[in-house]
Design goal:
α8 packs antiparallel against α9. This protein has helices spanning 51-59, 71-79, 102-106, 142-147, 149-155, 165-175, 186-192, 239-251, 303-315, and strands at residues 8-12, 22-23, 41-45, 64-68, 85-92, 111-119, 123-126, 137-140, 158-161, 180-184, 195-199, 208-215, 227-235, 257-264, 272-277, 283-288, 290-297, 318-326, 331-333. The chain contains nine helices and 19 strands. The strands form four sheets. It has a seven-stranded mixed sheet with strand order 2-19-6-12-5-3-4, sandwiched between helices. A five-stranded antiparallel sheet has the order 1-14-17-13-18, covered by helices on one side. A five-stranded mixed sheet has the order 9-8-10-7-11. The structure holds 3-phenylpyruvic acid. Residues 46, 50-52, 89, 120, 141, 143-144, 164-166, 209 line the site of 3-phenylpyruvic acid (PPY). 3-phenylpyruvic acid (PPY) binds at residues 46, 50-52, 89, 120, 141, 143-144, 164-166, 209.
C-alpha cells in the first residue's frame, strides 16, 4: 500500500438523493474502443483484474492500462510522463479506508479530471480443489477485507492485507497456498482460473467505490454537462469553525456540496502535509492541523463558485483546486 498513514477521517455523505441505478460499463460485452481514449496510458495500483484496472477501463474505454506495485508509483508514472492518467479509489459506501488515498492528492500537483463509481462485487477464491473447510486465512487489499469483515468472521478466517486484490490471487497461485483464500473481482477469478467459493462476499449489498482519474494538466468538463469542482481547504484554526465557514460560503450562494470531509491526523499526528503551490507553480510541503476536502456543484469558471472560493480564502491559509470535471452520477455495475 502506498499510503499507510491513518488520519482520522470523518465523512459526511451529502445529498444522496441523486444516486442512480447501476449501469453496465461500455467495455463489457463489446470490443469497441469507445470515446477516443485508445491512446491513453492509465496507471493503477495492482495487477490485471484489480478493481482499479476495471475503473480505468470503465472511465476510459480502450485505454492501455499500466499496472504499478503501489499507488504512489501510479502517481509518479503520470508525473514522469510514463502514463497519461492515474486512477485511484477514494471513497466507498461502507468504509473510510479509501479516503486516505485522497492524501496523495494533497502532496502532488496532479489534477482530478474525471470520476467513476463502480459497484464492487467480491468473490472468495481459492486454489483449485481446495474447499472452504481447509482454509485458515484470507488475503486481499485492506478495503476488500474491510468490506467483507462480517462475512470473514463468520467463516472464521484470519485476515492478512496485501497490496491489491488481483495480486492476492497471483500470490496464491505463485506460492501454491492451499490453506489461504483471496478476495478479488469476478474478472480476476476468470483471468487466473481459481475456484470461486463465494460470490457477493461483501457485507453490504450496496457496495460502491468511487475512483478519481488524475492527469498532469487540468481537465475541462464537457459542455452541456454538470460540473463538479474538488477543492482542499487548510488552516491553523479549529476544523469545526472551518467547516461551518465553508458551509456558509457555499449555502449563501446556493452552491450544493457533493462531499465534505475533514482529515485530521489526530492527537499523535504532526499535521497533514499539503503541497502549497506558488504563482510560478513551485511547490513547498507544509503541515496543517486539519484539511477539508470539498466537492462543489459547479465549475471553477462559475462566478458564484469563484465568489465562494474567494470567501473561503479569506479565512483559510490554503484553498487549492484539485480539479474541475464532469459530474458522473452513474454507478457502473461490473457484475453483469
Ligand atoms: O486491490 C484492488 O483491486 C484495487 O483496485 C483497490 C480496491 C480494492 C477494493 C475496492 C476497490 C478498489
Amino acid at each position: 500500500m502506498a499510503n499507510r498513514r491513518n488520519p482520522r477521517a470523518a465523512s459526511l455523505p451529502l445529498d444522496s438523493s441523486k444516486s442512480t441505478l447501476p449501469v453496465l460499463p461500455s467495455w463489457m460485452g463489446s470490443r469497441s474502443v469507445g470515446n477516443g481514449a485508445a491512446e491513453l496510458r492509465v496507471a493503477y495500483q495492482g495487477v490485471s483484474g484489480a478493481y482499479s484496472e476495471l475503473a480505468a477501463r470503465t472511465a476510459l474505454p480502450g485505454c492501455a492500462t499500466l499496472p504499478c506495485p503501489v499507488l504512489y508509483d501510479a502517481v509518479l508514472a503520470v508525473k514522469a510522463g510514463h502514463a497519461d492518467r492515474a486512477v485511484l479509489p477514494v471513497e466507498g459506501t461502507t468504509d473510510a479506508c479509501a479516503v486516505r488515498n485522497y492524501d496523495i492528492l494533497l502532496q502532488n500537483d496532479l489534477h482530478i479530471v474525471q470520476e467513476v463509481s463502480l459497484f464492487v462485487d467480491y468473490y472468495l477464491l481459492a486454489m483449485p480443489g481446495v474447499g472452504k473447510k481447509g482454509l485458515r486465512k484470507v488475503i486481499s487489499h485492506p478495503m476488500a477485507l474491510e468490506h467483507c469483515g462480517r462475512s470473514l468472521r463468520r467463516l472464521g478466517l484470519d485476515q492478512e492485507p496485501v497490496d491489491d486484490t488481483a495480486g492476492a490471487v497471483k500470490m496464491l497461485l505463485a506460492r501454491g497456498m492451499v490453506d489461504t483464500a483471496a478476495i478479488a473481482s469476478p474478472r480476476a477469478a476468470a483471468l487466473y482460473g481459481l475456484d470461486v467459493l463465494v460470490r457477493g462476499l461483501q457485507d453490504e449489498a450496496w457496495n460502491v467505490t468511487r475512483f478519481l482519474v488524475l492527469s498532469r494538466s487540468p481537465g475541462q468538463h464537457k459542455s452541456g454537462t454538470a460540473a463538479k469542482t474538488s477543492i482542499v481547504v487548510a488552516g491553523r484554526g479549529g476544523a469545526l469553525a472551518a467547516l461551518l465557514k465553508v458551509l456558509s460560503a457555499c449555502s449563501r450562494r446556493g452552491i450544493s456540496l457533493r462531499k465534505l470531509e475533514v482529515h485530521n491526523p489526530g492527537a499523535h499526528g504532526d499535521g497533514m502535509a499539503v503541497l502549497v503551490l506558488d504563482a510560478d507553480g513551485r511547490g513547498t510541503l507544509r503541515a496543517f492541523p486539519h484539511v477539508l476536502y470539498v466537492d462543489l456543484e459547479g465549475s471553477v469558471e462559475d462566478e458564484r463558485v469563484k465568489d465562494a472560493m474567494a470567501d473561503i480564502s479569506s479565512f483559510s491559509e490554503l484553498v487549492r483546486v484539485l480539479g474541475c470535471y464532469t459530474a458522473d452520477p452513474k454507478i457502473y455495475d461490473l457484475r453483469s
